[in-house]
Task: structure prediction
Amino acid sequence: MSQGVVVEDGSSNLCFSTVRVEDNWAGLEEEIETLFSSLESPNPYFSPEWLRCWLKWSNKEQKPFAALVRDRNGRLTAFWPFVEKKGIIGAKGLWPYLNNEANYFDPLGFPEAIPTLVKGVHGLLGDYHFIWTSLLRDSFWSNYLAPMLAESNTPCLLRIARKTCLSDLNSFSSFDAYLSDRLGAKSKKSLRYSERRLLDLGGVTFERHSDPDGIRSMLPATCLVELNSWKGAAIAGLYSVRGKRAFFFELLPALAEKGRAVTSCLRVEGFAVAWELGLLWQNGSMYGLHNLAYDEDWKLHSPGKQLLVHNLAASHAAGRSVDFLPGHLDYKQRFATRTEPVRELHWFRRSARGFLARKLILLNMRIRRRLMAKAKGRAYAAFHQNLDEYLGAFPVDSKE
Result:
């Protein structure tokens, strides 16, 4: 299937097509905005603001590519962005757009158009040796991809890459009832103790912005928090990679203009000690926790947890549900009321290069698992060493 060729689905009067976007998304942005705003639960990372800013600040060697579905009137009804990549053996493939930023990669589309889109993307294996679709939400997988895979004999690799944690706050009559259900009496007592200890220092304020100017005013403080957090030393922070700060400084006010972002900050005497970035979708009824960071110097006061709880209370008051986004971290599991799998799928052309691409990807997965296991082992040893040093500062009762 060649790029730009329209393929009609006669049974539904829908047309699948593809387009390369060499310079920017200007030609499609208005249509994408209309589609995004019309969907009940769109992928928050495929709004025009994310697409436009990532293209501007990402690796210029990546070639954007979009799969589209239009109805008989030419209206855009489904959209799935990718980037073209070349493999080391000459294989050519499609990678997820926003592959180093987004937490979800399922497409935008009306339910009646998604089957045509999935069928069309699968057909692109005539031009590409592999197609990688990562971090797919369970609703998209169950309703569209799983039925197709059940009928297809195309070589593929499927795995549950991560899980996402969600909190249905509206199912609780009060926020205190939610906390009691998720934390229990002992954890709630510990949280209140940390809160009182911080309040005793004086000058504690919670700052929250959902407007462009307010977010711009807060962004410099977020840089200091990121720098002083454990993420900074681990090069895992929001701004750790070169160019990311400029990307987010442009993106977040743009999202705020459409009511799609909220930033919050915990300050002590005006000094920022924690900050959180939330994304809004489903007409503002869903809050996605994209980033949470705190200053390591204030760790004993649990500023990150206090800011998180403050924002969860705000979401409960606003009638929102919370998506903690993929990454099965302990604090996410603790505050979540349910979890869902997030899947990853590689499709391969039935050819020599497709076969070799599959073998190389499997090898890469095995190497990554071994490296992660070693990293977890080192982290476990470091944790117990630090714990021993910490406990050594306290007297220990002896039975002798």
User: Anything to note?
Assistant: The domain at 166-340 is CATH 3.40.630.30 (Aminopeptidase). The chain has two domains: 7-154, 166-340.
